[in-house]
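Lab manual, section 2.4: Encoding a predicted structure.

Procedure: take the sequence of the chain (219 residues), apply the prediction step described in section 2.3, and record the output as structure tokens. A sample record is shown.
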Amino acid sequence: MLQGVIFDMDGTLLDTMYYWEHVGEDFLRKIGKEPEPGLGKIMLPLSMEEGAKYLQEHYELDMTIEEIQQGTRAVCDDFYREVADFKPGAREFLERLRVQGVPFALATATDRDQVELVMGRLGVLDAFHCILTSGEVGNSKNEPDIYLQTAKAIGTAPEHTWVFEDALHAAQTAKRAGFKLVGIYDDTSADVEEALRVLSDYYIRDFTDLDEFFRLEMK
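Recorded output:
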């Protein structure tokens, strides 16, 4: 039976991954550096700190990790403040969980101040029982810590907790840690759609496709 839900944010609840794929590139061009081909794919699985370390080392930047993080954060703050929005059906799905008394949380690689910025603007910040970021945990979603700590915070065991993810590497981590998985399609990860579909207990194109999930899991 469904006891708890952990959501990724970008690419899962929010239609924002298309923007994140270019943040590193935009930052480098802003400081006069030419980004390598495919930088977005390299940066996507990394936490903000890991991404800053990569840029610092790979591009020999004479900047601290914190300065690089501040620079990349400034590039995308306006996007969260003014543009970012839910994927189809996501807001309604959160409300359905709330009405049915299912605790849900957010586990994201995005910094907390940006999470609070966008979720506050969208009016759902207080709906989450817990919000945890990769930066706060100390590693990326290549490690299970963020999922395990979030499940503990909402009081559910992994085997009774559903993780919603669009990224294959994160989905693989959650499954290895014993969580149930709902994979969700995103354009930026279309190349691994089939692999994510096979890995997932449920696979959806968007949140309007979850009636069967509720019918089976709310018994």
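Check your result against the sample. The first helix runs from residue 17 to 20.
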